[in-house]
Amino acid sequence: MNDTVLVLSIVSAVVAGTPILFAALGEILAERSGVMNLGVEGMMLIGGVTGFWAGVQTGNLGIALVAGGLAGVVFSAIHALLAISLRVNQIVSGLALVIVGNGLSSFWGSTGDDPLIQSFNGVQVDPILPEALRDLPAVGPILFGHDIVVYLSWLIVAAAGYFLYRTNAGLSLRAVGEDPAAADAAGLSVTGIRYLFTLIGGFGAGVGGAYLALAVLGTWQAGMTAGAGWIAVALVILAGWRPWLALLASYVFGALRTLGFTLQIAGVDVPSDFLSMIPFVVTFLVVVIVSANPERARRVGAPASLGEPYSREAR
Amino acid sequence: MSVRISVEPRARPAVALRLGVPVASLLAAAAVGGVVILISGNSAIEAYRTILDSSINGVRPITRTLVLATPLILTGLAAAVAFRMKVWNIGAEGQLYMGAIVASGLALWLPAGLPKVLMLAAMVVGGAVMGALWAGVAAVPKAYFNTNEVITTLMLNFVALYFMNYLIFGTVSFWRDPGRNYPQGKLIPDAAELPVISHRLHYGLVIALAAALVLWWSLRGTTWGFELRTIGDSPSASRYAGMSVSGKIVSVLALSGALAGMAGAIEVSGVLKTLDPRALATEMGFTGIVVAAVARLNALGVVPVAVLLGAVAASGAKLQTIGLDAEIVFLLQGLIFLFVASGEFFLSNRLVLSSRSAPEPQLAATEASHE
Fold first, then answer.
1. Which domain covers residue A258, as residue numbers?
2. Least CA distance to B142: which residue of chain A?
3. Low-confidence ranges of chain B (pLDDT < 50)
4. What is the SS3 assignment for B327?
5. Which helix (H) or strand (E) holds B349?
6. Number of folded domains in chain A?
7. What does the pLDDT average to over A201-223?
8. Residue A146 belongs to a domain with what CATH number?
9. Residue from A31, A99, A191, A289 to probe the interface with B (highest B Cβ count within 10 Å)
10. Which of A78, B77, B139, B357 is deepest in the core (most CB within 10 A)?
């Protein structure tokens, strides 16, 4: 029963949803501090090309993911400088990251004597749990058949939830995002906290991009994210800035992105272009539905200062 | 004695600064782009010489630059008019595709013997209307539910892209030429082709310039333009003053979409002569955002900036012959955007150097202790 359509599609949804989950978790933490970074797509691409390069060089999954994450950090630092210190409009700055990230990653991936675009995946991404567990009916592949990164992502979701709602540092983060003036008056460093969590957001997007290139696609292609970064940005809204809901929503979008594969093994014939459209149509509809219900929109609640630069004298 | 740097807001930047900061931003972008080219093992000087050579050296290169600048003027205007009201239409890309689909469809469907003027008018108006409708899909939820338009317009880009691909690659649609093995669009009739000014340069450029002029005048000299700018600065104050903010959001997004849709129609009629998804999906919509930002959302400023970015784009193929990947064009555009965005800071603020011993204005003191 482990090769039924349902089991296989859930497994592929988890794999396809994991890069989105990393990017969305990072963005949740950044936006909780009040900084909206629309550059996720660009940071994922730059993390993807760096991580894939590091994977080809070292053959080590851990090093490759960290390298991708650090590339995301470098990119998010540009956004932090522009949005927090120079108080540039955060939408403009985020879009600039997408365009630069797209251009730089495509250029890097296709230049040089051994372009990455022709390189083979240097990293093995294997399941880590014993075969006896993996062979259990249904729950085996769905719960125990994944690689270490998927389990790591579950740990991070739990840690992020605990951090946000159960620790003083999490309370400080939320305070800075909700009311930076009050947080400032209480002695918190608004600038410092915003920088830190914008960089952490970049790390999440970079790791997501690296995992996408190494484990999901297994190759580097220019523009390989194909909108995954934008879906991560939308997903933060849909998840109401909550890590647990981001986990769930990531897998739903993972399922939508692999729907073609699922329908193919189920023997249903739908034009592939319409299948590719589905995640974007669903995101559009859900974003509209969430905002159309004022009651729900209020309860979901974006951080109150989201997108607003903070400066003391401007109060 | 230590020196402090503090930030003070600037009331209204001088003209020299308003021109100087964008130019300095462009130079900074060129410098960083040069470093990237050097790191990749190529000569930056040769790269920039190639860009100049293949874009402005001679009639043929100039016409090529202007052909590439034409859609960028229109998508640049599309972004400028929406951003002026702080409505973030990131969907020019998709609105352009939808405009191209309708314009090519009309060209193939209307009788081929129709007078050229009628045919061209039908295509340009049809493309503009379709672009406006596609933007409207995101505009209505934005106006009435305050739905985040960055997300919705962007999602609609992908929907339009896959729909356009489907029409040519996914099925034998009305647009596709059934007589060919390789999926390809039908050629539009002669009557549907924009007349040529010189070499490949077509009269689409004139349409784009006229649009820039009309929009510039409307933004400055009409109540419509005044309301648009006021709503951009303060939606709540505008609502209090009796302006219809929702209606304005819909109309401005529709106008923005119409300009992008028109760009798609003109590309089909003036350049491609068929619905060619690969040639249309070259980020003309996104580049328009860069154009608008560099032009500081000024409709007339959009024209020279579009020509500049058209010149960079015109050199893409030539750059490959000296061993540089054509992707460098997108990198340069992105860098220009980034530096111009940071340049905004220096237009609206100034840095003040002061020594610790000197008496300081109150403003500087609070800022410095904040850092």
1. 5-314
2. A288
3. 358-371
4. coil
5. strand B349-355
6. 1
7. 93
8. 1.10.3470
9. A99
10. B77
